[in-house]
């Protein structure tokens, strides 16, 4: 990875830190509702790349924000993301038995608890993010960050993308519809992470919208790379079944354009995102490397 010799080490440090933050903000497993908390924590502690919390923190660092303030949002975005995975895996949607190399939530706790723990995680994300009010006198930043999270998660964001994806499952899609799904299903939460980090650190509107633009391209590149890996990787390397897109008759960038063209798109989108970040006065070298890594990753 070029000049950033210890990128892998640096990433590992940040992943460990994100992991520690996430675990600190999880619900306690006690009382009558303890099974629910266990189901929530089972899926929250299943590993994963923790990219969204890391992107949030690194964008906050880019603008020189207070890192303590990032914590409830780092935990919150991962809760929102994980809730979407639990629900994605349900029999009613993708019917997947394995994720991140182990049984999915509904396989362990049953379908009803899968539905409930997903919804509860989504709500707990907001309970957690609202606790940021205790950490700062700048209430306005917190309000703006929570609002971004809410909008990017809801009908005009990730969940809207999920619904359009489910509705068109197995149908032939045009590129514009596929782009809509990717922009909402994947980019929206990457945008939420980076924009929230920026806003919490005091970035102005122009800076925040540049971050949104970069994050949108990063998210799309990330999702297309996902399509490519589904075809070119092995189950072992990926930690989840490969060729699942094909099995589910899913239209992806690879089915539309083939691996090579899809790879070119990934490169173009990443370069576009890096060019936007480059126009910012502030710099965060690790963030730049991370964006490149996301587009060239093998899992």
TrEMBL record:
<dbReference type="GO" id="GO:0016114">
    <property type="term" value="P:terpenoid biosynthetic process"/>
</dbReference>
<dbReference type="Pfam" id="PF00348">
    <property type="entry name" value="polyprenyl_synt"/>
</dbReference>
<dbReference type="GO" id="GO:0004337">
    <property type="term" value="F:(2E,6E)-farnesyl diphosphate synthase activity"/>
</dbReference>
<protein>
    <recommendedName>
        <fullName>Farnesyl diphosphate synthase</fullName>
        <ecNumber>2.5.1.10</ecNumber>
    </recommendedName>
</protein>
<comment type="similarity">
    <text>Belongs to the FPP/GGPP synthase family.</text>
</comment>
<keyword id="KW-0414">Isoprene biosynthesis</keyword>
<keyword id="KW-0479">Metal-binding</keyword>
<dbReference type="InterPro" id="IPR000092">
    <property type="entry name" value="Polyprenyl_synt"/>
</dbReference>
<dbReference type="InterPro" id="IPR053378">
    <property type="entry name" value="Prenyl_diphosphate_synthase"/>
</dbReference>
<dbReference type="InterPro" id="IPR033749">
    <property type="entry name" value="Polyprenyl_synt_CS"/>
</dbReference>
<keyword id="KW-0808">Transferase</keyword>
<dbReference type="InterPro" id="IPR008949">
    <property type="entry name" value="Isoprenoid_synthase_dom_sf"/>
</dbReference>
<dbReference type="GO" id="GO:0005737">
    <property type="term" value="C:cytoplasm"/>
</dbReference>
<keyword id="KW-0460">Magnesium</keyword>
<dbReference type="GO" id="GO:0046872">
    <property type="term" value="F:metal ion binding"/>
</dbReference>
